[in-house]
Amino acid sequence: MPPKTRPDAVASPPSSKLFLNDYLPYNMVVSASAISQQIARIYSDRFGLTLPQWRLIINLGSRGPMAQLQIVEHSALDKIAVSRAAAALRARGFVTMEFGRSDKRFRLLELTPTGRTIYREGATLALEIEQLLVSTANISDPLSLREQLIQLQKAARALEEF
């Protein structure tokens, strides 16, 4: 029995083949995963931080005190990951957590002086990593690449209707 296809799908000629290494979405995922794994290793080795913890620190360091739900919106992390990262950073003395008076689920996070030091050192390291990636990959226009990536993130929403 032939595989089922959507009625509105574009039919491909039987001779066409899809090679994974030639498929742009696959290459983007593999590249992002490889970079993410290396960054996770670097931040773990240097600061003992996970990527969710580092994303939380970046947001607080660049934006100031934030509610946990705001961090969810700005970090591509879910509520549970933000909550766990916040608890771990609080236990290490990197963030303070202020609970809402009427709603105990509300938590306002702020970097401590130690957390701000980690942010400054980590931000410097992040920019060095970015520069290394850009130069090693011979990217001539990193601003254009950033804009294209943002457009791809927006375009990904169109797949929700696919």
UniProtKB/TrEMBL annotation:
List, alphabetically, the InterPro entries matched.
HTH_MarR-typ, MarR/SlyA-like, WH-like_DNA-bd_sf, WH_DNA-bd_sf
Recorded GO molecular functions are:
DNA binding; DNA-binding transcription factor activity
Ranges where the HTH marR-type domain occurs: 21-154
Listed Pfam families:
MarR_2
GO BP terms: response to stress
Record carries keyword DNA-binding: yes
Which key words tag this protein in UniProt?
DNA-binding
Could you identify this protein by its name? DNA-binding MarR family transcriptional regulator
